[in-house]
Amino acid sequence: MNPLLSPFDTAPFSKLKNEHFMPAFTQAIADARAEIDAITNNPEAPTFENTIAALDFSGKQLDRISSVFFNLNSAETNDEIQKIAQEISPILSEFGNDITLNEALFKRVKAVYDQKDSLTTLTTEEQTLLDKKYKSFSRNGANLNDDKKKRLREIDAELSKLKLKFGENVLAETNKFEMHLTNEADLDGLPEGEKEAAAQMAKAKDKDGWLITLDYPSYIPFMKYAKNRALRKELSIAFGGKAFHNDALDNQENVLKIAKLRHERANLLGYKTHAHFVLEERMAETPEKVQEFLNELLEKAKPAAEREFKQLEDFAKELDGIDRLEKWDASYYSEKLKQKLFNLDDEKLKPYFKLENVIAGVFKVAEKLYGLQFEEVFDLDKYHADVKTYRIYDENRDLVSLFYADFHPRAGKRGGAWMTSFKSQYVENGTNVRPHISNVCNFTKPTASKPSLLTFNEVTTLFHEFGHGLHGMLANTVYPGLSGTSVYWDFVELPSQILENWCYEKEALELFATHYETGEVIPMELVTKIKESATFQEGMQTLRQLSFGLLDMSWHGADPTGITNVKAHEDKAFEGTDLYPATAETCMSTSFSHIFQGGYSSGYYSYKWAEVLDADAFAYFKEKGIFNKEVATKFKDNVLSKGGTENPMDLYKKFRGAEPKIEPLLERAGLL
Q: Relative to the CA of 643, which of 173, 183, 397, 433 has its CA 20 to 30 Å away?
């Protein structure tokens, strides 16, 4: 009676118990293995259909179980789920290796690949899938000798466990820290809504006073508004020092092991570094090109960043006599300066961004661009009461996608925001199977007196993740392995980042930015200020993003075997981008989940890379009208629906008519 082993369309969350997962994984792996054996032992000669396509459609049940389990491990985890994750991850890694290191199977794949020039009837999508399948073998050890294959398996099993442990430590550190305040004077400067949320958090834990945590909705407002500099310092150091305390939750050893194992793996496969291995399958192509790209932007942004930092230093000195600006002063004085320059306070904006209205707004934007209709439904199973569920239809009332939206923090949920899927889109037996997509964010919960009101930054985050969501929802490919966000990693941020642009446009804001009490549409004066302030401290922001990209490349773009001190290595990587004095108690690398747990290793630069794409693409929308149907249809048909079926630069050129230029980004950022 295991619900994961009975056929299911939507994930059967309410029927799931932790004890279901291991038996379901075991059975699904056995079934997938049988499917692989059937392909391998097929007596007929290898063809695209009986080998490449069959391989892409194999293991569907295992994929579904994995997506349910690992999404729960991110959004609704507990000790038992984390234990299962540690147990199953190396088993899944081993199974993946059993496929890519299966000589008889690779022989069949290679036989089809070797005759690809004569397979003239293959579509572009089929040719792409053939290339991808061949490379998934060759890039993962199929051509190695037995000793090297054995070592590759050991590395992959160890990496899968290390990455999980890294993430568990970060989550445990985030949950462990609490700043318990009992003197109301310590909350001076904090807006009433934030104080109420902190009091509510304390009450939920049977404590008096107020609780401040390292979750973004609690941490960011305190750093931005709290007058008490000593408490800002305490909170900043706790946040920046996650998993950097030389204790059981310390990640320094994990960072060193992950970097070194990745390097060894790349060398085994014939690549100079992990970055050389990764970037072969990216638009950027080589570490040299990434470095060149980051350095070009650094050259443009650094003078502006230094001017902005000097302005902030002078302002803090003039306002409060601050002699040396520290990291824990950054948000506080930036917010004060922004208010002075633009008379724009996030607290003035928040009443216009009630969460439900912003959700309705992003739906409306998607409707105007792509003809989508959204209906909240209450008959879909969900994993937590906070999750909202929707069915999405096109203009003909055909189902496009199911959508799960999970917007508030809780103890079992990691920080940040992400898009994921519970089911991929593909075409099977003539039926276009539609996807099940999820957005997960961490926005302030409603309080007794106020609904969930978003900062403008949170509004852009919601639009960003929904952009990824559209990439998944509007997928229209034949093969699941090329569907939705299965694209080059430095192309995956284009759909998300371009959608953020609508948040700055009057025509879009007027659709949803209404005062939660009065219903008043956001005044034009505030819209103008949002646009004017959009480039505020853009030089410093760019420098910050570049520093993360450079840190990523420092771990993965060179031989890390000589690195013994994580902090010293990081300080060196940050040398060209540091504005604030260094703090001995903090270390970015030990909680840099994007590159040590998620999929961004050697790929963090792609946020900036995608900004070049999105600024250039949005310039096209601006030229024709931000809701222009012709441009929107071109974007949908050539980017959102196509997944990884073609080279991303070819897809971009089909949409835009030319390769992207860097000038629109520099212009938008005020760096020209």
A: 397
Contact 48, 112 (CB under 8 A): yes
| 3-state secondary structure at position 638 | helix
Judged on CB neighbours under 10 Å (0-12, 13-18, 19+), 437 is buried
Active-site residue 465, yes or no? yes
Q: Is the pLDDT of residue 247 over 90?
A: yes
Nearest residue to 86 via CA among 15, 175, 21, 13: 21
Pairs from 656-662 (Cβ < 8 Å, separation ≥ 24): 656/616, 656/617, 656/620, 660/612, 660/613, 660/616, 660/617, 661/612, 661/616, 662/296, 662/612
Are 362 and 275 in contact by the 8 Å Cβ rule? The answer is no
Q: Domains of the chain (ranges plus CATH)?
A: 13-143 (1.20.1050.40), 177-240 (no CATH), 252-342+538-603 (1.10.1370.10), 351-502 (1.10.1370.40)
Predicted local confidence at residue 183, as pLDDT? 97
Burial class (CB in 10 A: 0-12, 13-18, 19+), 248: exposed
Contact 207, 178 (CB under 8 A): no
Report the predicted TM-score, pTM, of the whole model to 2 decimal places. 0.87
Axis crossing angle, helix 79-100 with helix 21-40, rounded to the nearest 10: 10
Let me know: does 555 contact 256? Beta carbons within 8 Å: no
Residues 253 and 244: their CA atoms lie apart, in Å, by: 10
- State the catalytic residue, choosing from 76, 308, 335, 465: 465
Q: What is the largest CA-CA distance in the chain?
A: 82
To which H or E segment does residue 402 belong?
Answer: strand 399-406
**Helix runs in 597-662, H state only:** 606-624, 629-635, 648-656
Tell me the Ramachandran region of residue 430: left when phi exceeds 0, alpha when psi lies from -120 to 50, beta otherwise.
left
Measured in residues, the chain has a length of: 672
Q: CA–CA separation, 457 vs 335, rounded Å?
A: 13
Token pair recorded at residue 402:
């199911």
